[in-house]
Amino acid sequence: MLAQDLRPEEIFRRDRATGFPLFGSQRLLITGVPTLQRFGNDLRTIMGQRTSATVMTRLGYDTGLAAAMALADMYEFDSPEEWLKSFKVLLPATGMAVERDSQIHFDPENKTLRYTGIWEKSFEAQVWSMFTGGASDKPVCHVLSGIVSGFFTAILGKDVLVHELSCKAQGHDYCTFEARPMEEWGEDPLKIHEPLDEDWLNDEIHRLQKELKQSREVLEKRDQELQRLKTGPEKNRHGIVFRSPEMGKIVELAEIAAPSNSTVLVQGESGTGKELVARFIHKASQRGDEPFVAINCAAIPHTLIESELFGHLKGSFTDARADKKGLLVEAGQGTIFMDEVGELGMEVQAKLLRALQQREVRPLGGLKTVPIQARIIAAANQDLREMVEQGAFRQDLFYRLSVFPLLIPPLRQRREDILILARHFLSRLDPSHPGFTPEVVRRMQAYHWPGNIRELENCVEYAYILSSREPIHMRHLPISMAEKPRDIFDDLAGDFPTPRELVRRYARHVLQHTEGNKTQAARLMGVSPVTLWRYLNQEAET
Ligand SMILES: [Zn+2]
Known about the structure:
InterPro entries: AAA+_ATPase, AAA_lid_NorR, Homeodomain-like_sf, HTH_Fis, NO_sig/Golgi_transp_ligand-bd, P-loop_NTPase, Sigma_54_int, Sigma_54_int_dom_ATP-bd_1. By secondary structure, this protein is an alpha/beta fold. It has helices spanning about 10, 35-45, 50-75, 80-95, 125-130, 140-155, 205-215, 220-230, 245-255, 275-285, 300-310, 325-330, 345-360, 385-390, 395-400, 415-430, 440-445, 450-465, 480, 500-515, 520-525, 530-535; strands spanning about 10-15, 20-25, 25, 100-105, 110-120, 160-165, 175-180, 235, 240, 265-270, 290-295, 310, 325, 335-340, 360, 370, 375-380, 405-410.
């Protein structure tokens, strides 16, 4: 999961039985800003400014810590950075503030963090100016500082403290803050962990503290946030929706190939969208306004394929009741897309080769040849080169077709695209559908998608029909998907490797999957290349 893919309305939900607002599975309490103002004032009066600031910060700290852990339970983040960045995405949905201009220096390996940024519209600064008037001599956003401290502490795995450097309540345009590990600030100036002097705390404050800890304004600015997230960095070019660099490369190559007249060979597993890429090339070429003729070579009986492609004259065989132009000619100045070209028989392959070499066809039963002007895009879901080696496909035809080869990776090798495609298909069915639950997102991202994009599209449509405008739950998924994946430890049987050995085997497994590409493997595992290197090279424990 990437931070930018989080959708607050999928995280802040309502319990169907009670109507209570929920954050993941945690119950939330909606409290108005005036309540907090009164609480803050009372606290300052009873305890003085310094201690009340500490209480408010501690309150935020526990909330932030719990929120970070709950979020990690909901989603598998691609990396600790993405987990860290998720705070900024979710902050507006809590009604507390909007963060901008963040500068992040984060090294999860060495547990170092320096995070600076700006809070706009902090609720605490707003409360101050609404009810107190005048400029404060100190920053006032204590709960907010505490929440960010707690949230980052969970991620870094050691204490982080946020200092508010300047505050809107002091008369500035906005608040600025800086987060660092606690040790870098010197002692714990806000006593986040130390017990407070009991004298300061009467029962009433305990009660209010508990109440405030759970309080949130959750559903405000929901539409605003939704709009903001909709314009994410995903790309849609002529219907090809993607974010992965792998697919970006394919689109880039297709754009380069489009204006030429070269024959293109699109290869990829079934359901990866080969025809979409062919249409993209057609549209982006000068032939874009001419016909796009598609033929699936596997769907037409062997006896008819010749006349489909090359045409026939009346009476050339029993069923030939009239002259027929072949598709190669019918495509005119346009593009002919020949899918599953690996299914062509040897005889047709020979004729196709001749037609491509001479740029003309002779219809069945005819003597005169007709010129071909169309551009040819072929596609196959088998590895044609392998078929050539096995003698099942003509080598000369293979070279003639693969002037410009494109290999579309299967969906499981570009997991970044799964969620945006799923959302794309869902919004095409219903733009205002409430989306997927976190469990479903996790399942979709972990699933291996043997049927690729077509299977994903069918799955979304199936779930959409069952969900009847509710968020899509696990129970709405097709059975093939809802099944729990097999336990990965089944294969270990009586073998009990040490955790280090297990990590080493796992790293090798992922590396095999990426065909030795270490950067890609590290990205899949959510670790740095250095960590991957360490995994691979660690010696077995003795
Ligand atoms: Zn402030």
